[in-house]
Amino acid sequence: MAIDPIYIVQLTVNGIVLGLLYALIAVGLALIFGVIEIINFAHGELLMVGAYAMAFALPAVGLLYWPALAVAVIVSAIGGLVIYELFLSRLRTSEFERSVLITLALSIIILHVVQYLFTANPRLVDTQYGFDGVDIGAIRITWTRLIGAGAALVAFALLYVTLKYTQFGRAMRAIAQNREAALMVGIQPRAVARNAIVLATALCGLAGAVLAPIQLVTPSMGQSLIFKAFALVIIGGLGNIPGAIVAAVGLGLMESWIGGFFEIIWQELAVFLVMIVVLLLKPDGLFRREAMRVG
Amino acid sequence: MTAILEIRELRKSFDGVHAIDDLSFDVEAGRITGLIGPNGSGKSTTIDCIGGFQSIDGGKVMLAGADITGRATHEIARAGLMRTFQTVRVFERLSLRDNLLIAAQHFDDAQWTDELFRTARYRRAVAAAEARAHELIELVGLSRLIEAEAGILSYGQRKLVALAAALMPASKIVVLDEPVAGVNPTRIREVEEILRKLNSAGQTFLIVEHNVEFIGNLCDRVIVLDQGHKLAEGTAADIQNDPRVLEAYLGMTPEMAATAMQGAA
Amino acid sequence: MKTLGVLAVALLCGALPYLTTSNYVIGIAISACIFTVAAAALNIVYGYVGLLSFAQLGFWGIGGYAAALTVMTYGGSFWQGLLWAAILNAAVALVIGYPALRTNRHAFVIVTLAFTLLVTLIARDWVDMTRGPLGIPGLPAPTLFGLEFNTTPRFYWIAWTFAVVALGALYILCSSRIGRTLVAIKQNEPLVRAQGISPMPYKLAAFAISAAVTGVAGGIYAFHLRVIDPLFLDFYYMQTFLIMVIIGGAGSFWGVVLAGMVMAAVPEILRFSADFRMIIYGIILLVAMLAMPNGVAGWLHDRRVERMRAALR
Q1: For B148, phi and psi rounded to 5 degrees?
Q2: Are A271 and A229 a contacting pair, CB within 8 Å?
Q3: Disulfide engineering: A41 pairs with which of A103, B187, B204, C68, CB 3.0-4.6 Å?
Q4: Distance between CA atoms of residues B73 and B242, nearest Å
Q5: Looking at beta carbons, which residues of chain B come within 8 Å of C192?
Q6: What domain range includes position A65?
């Protein structure tokens, strides 16, 4: 089988874009886990809500990409805030299984409500950019993918700046590193948790909104992505943000390469195997939970 | 007298900080030995290292001549070293009886098949364990609460349960990590009595404590730690008059201490 | 006294086909028997060991497919199919369990979830083995010494016998020293280790036993449905088992059994809309976790502890 180098490069480019999107999701999960030690099972559904918000906002603003994106991100962030305030704010960090089941229940409710209201029919989402793209030699990257990758990179840069230089960000890192010490110096856990959730779900909503024009929007789109995001967070080390990003891009690339040559089943199997191997060798993940090191 | 526990050149660091540095001491069989030292001197770390709750960076731990350095926690327990914890640990949702029975469970030779078929071996093991549990609960004065869940007991009562549990199996040495911290004074007297009684029946103890008076009353031999190494060793009286100890603990010279004690008298 | 009561109830349930001729009701009872056992098996891992395992659904699926394939592809009997369901699941559980149980409780949840998703994918995409989305229809009725279990009441005997035997075995396990050790591990693992017990073999054993039992339950259910396809691994089943365990009270043997029996009728009542059913399930799960996380049995236990505490003063 002659392997076309152009094909490989195309796969690589797609893989990186995919990886960056995975990273958006995984970073949000890592952030939430680092600050309140909860694995948010509803994360995928918040992504889906972001995608649907994008799907509905676009026609309302004449298919303009950026306003619709803003709406989608805000909707997801509000969703995250509401979930936190109503259901998660009173949980203690020791009640891990309870938090899993609560977010799981929410994920089921959200998914099926959306499915009930909007049916399971996949939706094609169109934007002002249509299917136009950039051609570099024989490689084509659609604008929607390019913007998606760009938005992800900008988001990570903003996140880095926030975590490292703002008080709001420092408080989050403090809580993630040493909860007791942070509480003793007067950091308010609920306020920090609320901020972390809003940030994380905004990222997630961004991922959903960016994905909407790239792939079909269905109520269960969050489900398939979230399993991979969980695997990433584990592989990267729970609560470790740079670890999650590295793992995500790695996964995107691996998926793209494998998917380009083999059937989909091998992609999933590969992810699972990598996760198991990593856990066998390093039960705490590839990069130990250095409690949300920023870099 | 034979040494039941031998520590040789023990070393343990955390991120470059030497918590324990070249520590060596013996615990003699049949004696009550105390381990004291100011905060941060490495007492609890020493116990954790001996008991297999912390990895050891260097040195050796020998129990009755057998090398237990770096072995798994449960193996060390089975080798004959039982311990209690500084933050008292009991099974909160189990009765006192169950708390004690579990502690003895793996020291008899009954298998799950024995239990399934209720063989004579199983029934003997259970009877022996129940008898010992009753004896120990009686000794710590909690008989009327034997069916109560450990979670509803007060802090001091839980410490007694933890003590009783550590005594359930026949062991070579019982290591007590701050057995009377946070316990009210009358109870402390009771605990002294209990430990003396058990010691006269032959049980060896190593006790880590802050309460110098408690140690003074009970211990045949006291080892003083400071910043991870052995500062002094001797009888309680030796220690109380050792100027190095006084300085490390109280920042006092013997003259100042004498004045202080006169003031307290 | 309690034993007599339990036996009486068990016999009463066994007599169901004599009490009603409605195949509909007996069908519900068959599901009740099977689901209750699956919930009890989940209880071993979640209630007794204290780990939230989504692998349950994967084992259920493997059990169903193993039994179906044994009969349809390899020409074995229903009973051999069940045996393979148990053995295969126990083996898989040991292999997956070893890395999974060594990690912390956070990673455990995700690894077990990943395992189940993988099983679902295999069911859907390994078409050569499992016939993919089309599934394996036409599973025949079990036979034993010439007697064919081809009517609903007859199949009920299989389900009922299984429930009695499986629940009996699980009960013996839970009330034995092994069960007590599992509970102790859940409550205070360092203390358990300090008392000479290595937790890993216990957790592995519990995981494997739970998997084997769940697998057999899955096998029987597949033959009740007379067809197996990837929908057998629908998350709906996991939720059903979870809700039974949570409402009954994780860690309470009889609480979960009772919840299982009572809640068996719920899926039927909610049959009219798949989405609606899931939404209701989600709401039940949510309310239970918010208001009564320890289930009915847990709530009763807390009342009793309060009384004991008050009596001590």
Answers
A1: -75, 150
A2: no
A3: A103
A4: 36
A5: 102
A6: 13-221
